[in-house]
Specification:
The chain is an alpha+beta fold. The protein has a single domain (5-143), classed as Aminopeptidase, CATH 3.40.630.30. It is built from four helices and six strands; from the N terminus they run ααβββαβαββ. It has helices at residues 8-20, 39-48, 90-101, 117-125; strands at 51-55, 61-70, 73-81, 107-113, 129-133, 137-143. The chain has a six-stranded mixed sheet with strand order 1-2-3-4-6-5. A hairpin with a 2-residue loop joins strand 2 (61-70) and strand 3. It is globular, with a radius of gyration of 14 Å. The relative contact order is 0.15.
């Protein structure tokens, strides 16, 4: 569901924790995409309507996403799940929910760092195909 500005502080903490944990799957150091640990960035995304939150069955925020609709395609800017909730199906649920919410999109696109072993397998498992890569990123697409 869409996140409001009041959700930004919680989402920043989850984002920072999730992306910093990538050091365990090949990241050269702790870090993440631009703005991943910035409250102003997340507040701006919430005001623009591009910040989403994932809540569990108790209503607790366990993850989030930044999504950018572009005409008939959707750019998945990032998804993140709190590390304590890894391997519980939340990542798959987020991606399936995104695809369902944006059912009019003809294509879903995203990228992931080339060093990230976890996300490469994850996106491939969900039906995304690699369309290109450069020195830093692998670019994926899923068409309907």
């Amino acid at each position: 569901m869409k996140a409001g500005t009041s959700d930004a502080v919680i989402l920043v903490a989850i984002s920072k924790h999730a992306f910093d944990s990538d050091i365990e799957v090949g990241a050269p150091s702790a870090g993440g995409p631009p703005g991943y640990k910035s409250t102003p960035f997340h507040m701006k995304m919430a005001r623009q309507g591009t910040l989403y939150k994932l809540v569990d069955e108790h209503g607790l925020i366990v993850g989030g996403a930044v999504l950018f609709p572009e005409q008939d395609r959707l750019y998945v800017g990032r998804i993140f799940v709190a590390p304590e909730h890894f391997r519980k199906g939340y990542g798959i649920f987020i991606m399936e929910s995104i695809e369902s919410m944006f059912s009019d999109a003809k294509e879903f696109v995203l990228d992931t760092p080339i060093w990230n072993k976890r996300t490469k397998d994850f996106y491939t498992k969900l039906g995304y195909t690699e369309v290109r890569r450069d020195k830093e990123f692998i670019y994926y697409s899923k068409k309907k």
